[in-house]
Design goal:
This protein folds into three domains: about 220 residues, no CATH class; about 170 residues, Helix Hairpins, CATH 1.10.287; about 35 residues, no CATH class. The chain has 13 helices and four strands. Strands 2-3-1-4 form a four-stranded antiparallel sheet.
Length: about 475
Amino acid sequence: MKLEQIWQVLMARRRLFGTVLGAVLLVVLLVSLLMPRVYVAEASLVIDTKATDLVTGNTVPGQLSAQIIATQTDVIESHAVALKVVDQMALTKNPVYLRKFQSATGGAGSIRDWIADRLTEDVSVRPSRDSNVLNIDFPARDPRLAAEFANAFADAYVQTSLELEADPARRQARWFEQETNQLRDRVEAAQRRLAAEQAKTSIVGTVDHIDVDDAKLTEISTELVAAQRSLAESQTRLKQMNDAAAKGQLAALPDILSNPLLQTLKTDLARAEASFAEVAARYDRNHPAYQSAHATVIALRNKLATEIDSVRGGVQQDEQINQRQVDALQRALDQQKTTLIGAQRNHDSLAVLNREVDSAQRAYDAGLQRATQVRLESQLDASTVATLNAAVPPFQAARPKPMLYLLVALVFGSVFASGICIAAEMVDRRVRQSANIVEATGWLVLAEVPHLTYGPVPPRRLRFT
């Protein structure tokens, strides 16, 4: 049908249209009046999206504000938050919920979880536009009860937010506590090994001990060089003396020439020999003066030979003493080298143990610092969520809204009534204008007789075959 034809049908069946529309409005009005009043309480929360560590004050990577708001919305509507509301309001002991639970499940299952599921169906979260504010709405027939539920959800969400922030820190704190205990054990074990090695080697200050041993080695080396020089000199003197003795030239040796006793004896011998020569020229060998002078010469010669042998023995003794000193210093040098090598080895071992202690100590200090920080985070009673407005009992019911329902019923009732009128027209067709005849029969209309002015002429029924 065309719009003009629909309008004619509605005008012709306006009584039916009005009856249907009135019935729809009446039904909607009665239903809205019979519906129980539902009050919706609203609690507002503000979300802090600043990514700042409250313990260290450092900036940490954070999510976008829209993502945070969407995540917090899901958290508020979660089963975990609803369970906290059930516990906070002691709903498992509420007779109303007990009856509903028995009626719905026959007592099977957990009433706590069942009530939490019902609450998650009722609660709704409305993020404010272009802000970090979340509005928690909860409907109830009692305005005071609606406000209590809304505030309970807000408190439970704040508590859950704290747990979500603190629980990972608590788990990390427990893990760090175990790790720091192990690190402390490693430090103590390294210190025990170091102390045992120090007690074994009798070394405390490794660097000083090495310096002392090195200085002692240098001193022994210096003394050995000096002793070797003295030995070389004594060996040279002894060789010269042996060579001179073999050639009979001991008197020309420096040791002989530099000996004052020998020089005195040589002088006395020369004087005694001169005196003997004079006596020998004057007397016979059997003369007492001759024998006395000759005995004096022999005595001085023997004494000179004895002193020369004594000097020669002294040189040999010096050579032997110097040889023994060199041997002793050589043994001391070898022993000191061995001691120094052992000390160096002990020094290296102690240095390794010291490094192990230092490394274990640094690891323990770093772990302890991080553990302290995580422990503070786990004990921090601060959340990024705060209650902006607590819910108060609403003064007006959110549902039903009779005027709104009537307005909607007017629109949809008009459409429904129009459909009823058109359906009635299709069942009982009428000729409303000449176009109906042309559409139904295909005949051309030659003329139309207008309605008389003194009264309307009822339309005739046209049966189509």
